[in-house]
Design goal:
single chain; Amino acid/polyamine transporter I; 0% strand; globular; AA/rel_permease1; transmembrane transporter activity; membrane
């Protein structure tokens, strides 16, 4: 799960009737860290194996294609940030281009995937924990559910994992990946890549849909645009971040395939656990399994914080039921958290009873994310001037092409969109009456 929301608190009440401007405290490398931290989430721990099972060796093309798509995406979001720095981020751009109803649609699409998205995050965490503790499917769901409950509980009482802890987590993930992947490169077998299209060329598109989960996050920096000391650092940070993400994702995908660290031969273990065991021995597998479980919590906590604030904001603006737009005495959006927590637990229950896997759940989340990206890029192509509008158009075409591969899940996107528009129409009629 990529951490898709950056949260920054500021004191806006230092003087009656006055608002303090946001401080410009972000430098180039702080921006790079925020960008990479937004994109590089727990998906990197499991998705190389999921994609390899779907498309075989050709899944490398899906990774490469999404890395290339990240360049115009990052450029476009950086351009929108510089054009108008607003805390509403990408939804503000959609509202400016197409009106508040379509901004609401983007919010609904983002929130509609919470039950499935939390289930994916729980399964990723649970698989790492179960790889060490054993217990099979029951242990996976027990550990995953415990982390979900802990994330909502901590947010409910107002406790937050600090930004420093999140950046430290990012550092641990990157360093661990470099050590494991760098050591495993010598074990890559060329014959593991033949036949290259072992599952057919169409599966590359299906793998891209699954992998889009690992590339969500380029929009997360937009609310922080006002806080860069140098506006040009937004561009530079986004480009450096694309390079770092590519340097992490592509080698890991190659090593996962080249060493056969996926599929039934791994005993359902996560790819990094298998790779660590091959390179450093069984004790390393245990360390990676425990680390994967613990590290999964921080992006999950950030995800809960971000989606609850979005739910609160939509309720406050009556784009969702207004009772969601209420905070407790301590300022916590307790009703939004309770509603989302209940939805997440229902999603986990359905996943367990239906024996669904990560690959089964990902299309729900990625189709929703893709739809919000399509809306964002369409808005950017209208709001930006050439040549930046060309980058937006390129991203729009590419995101639409990937969205096509969700197949029947387009009906899911359409259903959420219709419900969002119908709700806005209902609210408008009630206000008129």
């Amino acid at each position: 799960m990529s951490s898709t929301t950056a949260t920054v608190s500021h004191d806006l009440s230092s003087a009656p009737g006055q608002t303090q401007p946001l401080r410009r405290t972000l430098g180039l490398w702080q921006g790079v860290s925020l960008y990479v931290g937004s994109v590089l989430g727990t998906g990197v721990l499991v998705l190389p194996g999921v994609a390899a099972e779907t498309a075989g060796p050709a899944s490398v093309l899906a990774w490469l294609g999404l890395v290339l798509l990240s360049l115009p995406l990052a450029l476009t979001y950086a351009a929108l940030s510089r054009q108008r720095a607003d805390a509403a981020g990408f939804s503000d751009a959609i509202e400016r281009a197409f009106g508040p109803r379509w901004g609401a649609v983007a919010g609904w699409l983002f929130l509609a995937q919470v039950p499935m998205g939390m289930a994916v995050g729980a399964l990723i965490a649970g698989e790492y924990g179960a790889s060490v503790l054993g217990g099979g499917e029951v242990m996976v769901f027990t550990l995953g559910t415990a982390l979900v409950v802990a994330a909502y509980a901590l947010n409910f009482v107002g406790l937050r994992v600090s930004a420093t802890a999140q950046l430290m987590t990012l550092g641990v993930i990157v360093v661990g990946l470099v050590l494991i992947v760098g050591s495993a490169l010598q074990d890559v077998q060329v014959q593991a890549f033949t036949p290259f299209f072992s599952r057919g060329p169409v599966t590359v598109g299906l793998a891209a849909v699954q992998l889009f989960w690992a590339f969500v996050g380029w929009e997360a920096i937009t609310p922080l645009a006002k806080e860069f000391r140098e506006p040009r650092d937004i561009w530079r940070a986004s480009m450096l971040a694309v390079g770092i993400v590519a340097a992490v994702y592509l080698p890991l995908a190659i090593v996962t395939i080249g060493t056969g660290a996926y599929g039934a031969a791994t005993g359902a273990k996560a790819p990094l656990v298998v790779l660590a065991g091959h390179v450093f021995g069984p004790n390393a597998s245990r360390v990676v399994g425990i680390a994967g479980l613990l590290l999964s919590f921080i992006p999950m906590n950030a995800y809960v914080a971000g989606t609850s604030r979005l739910t609160f904001a939509l309720g406050e603006r009556r784009q969702l039921p207004s009772w969601l737009g209420v905070t407790s005495a301590s300022g916590t959006p307790h009703r939004a958290l309770a509603a989302l927590g209940a939805a997440a637990l229902l999603g986990l229950a359905a996943t367990y009873l239906g024996r669904l896997r990560i690959a089964d759940l990902l299309p729900f989340s990625t189709s929703s994310f893709l739809a919000t990206y399509v809306l964002s890029m369409a808005a950017a192509s209208k709001l930006l001037r050439p040549p930046l509008s060309y980058a937006a158009l390129l991203s729009l075409v590419a995101c639409t092409a990937v969205l096509f591969f969700v197949g029947t899940f387009l009906a899911w996107v359409a259903a959420v969109t219709v419900c969002a528009l119908a709700y806005q129409q209902l609210v408008s009629r009630r206000r008129a009456d």
